[in-house]
What we know:
By secondary structure, the chain is α/β, with parallel strands linked by helices.
Amino acid sequence: MTQTAATTEESTGPPAAAAVEDVRKIYGRGDSRVAALDGVSLAVPQGRLTAVMGPSGSGKSTLMHCMAGLDTVTSGRVVLGGTDLTGLGERALTRLRRDRVGFVFQAFNLVPTLTALENITLPSDIAGRRPDRDWLDRVIDAVGLRDRLGHRPSELSGGQQQRVACARALAARPDIVFADEPTGNLDTASGREVLGLLRDAAHLHGQTTVMVTHDPAAASYADLVVFLADGRVAGRLADPDADTILERMKSAGSPA
Ligand SMILES: Nc1ncnc2c1ncn2[C@@H]1O[C@H](COP(=O)(O)OP(=O)(O)OP(=O)(O)O)[C@@H](O)[C@H]1O
């Protein structure tokens, strides 16, 4: 693996936990050619919650997948925790995702036959690692699921299931967590719980997290909001409130 310093565009603030530099991702050829990412540069600050917003088709999921090593870029560079992902083979990418990245998706993706606790420790079990017991306890308390650990997913509410999914992502202490519409399937109250959890994980425990969302209220939990449009970065807002985010979305002329 090539080790390089993660670069950051900002001269102040925390160092970048991840960065993309002039990334292009082209799908298809000829008439069906789509530039899903068209020269994106972005630094994800360490220990912060970053939201990525933008209209449907603007490249949010593609960006997240490329940053997480789930997809490769056509050109440009992706650096994660000092490792240049560009040019890594599938085995190395698999190892990197397993060891250094946590995922929270809209569909909770819990294993239905396992209990909440078994789901939370599954990634460490698969990797053959013993989970850090103290940390696991803290994560379980943070997600407020201590009295539900023996329940199977079908015995949990949507919000509880997503909190299990968050705990699963946090338990392995990954360098970075990627959350794709983590509150998309949740009612407002459950969504707030999950967002508060992700924000606390960043602020109290230094967990770097990138979250894709369409929802200005959800994005207002973030320390930094990055707007995409047509595969490009169309703006950034630091410490935004929901109204400012909504204004920005309106002025971009394209509802997310
Ligand atoms: N596997 C693929 N093959 C071809 N085109 C693709 C593929 N994946 C994405 N695209 C195209 O790339 C562009 C960006 O898609 P992407 O899913 O990243 O957008 P998004 O902002 O996440 O959208 P949404 O909010 O609707 O999920 C779209 O035009 C999409 O049709």
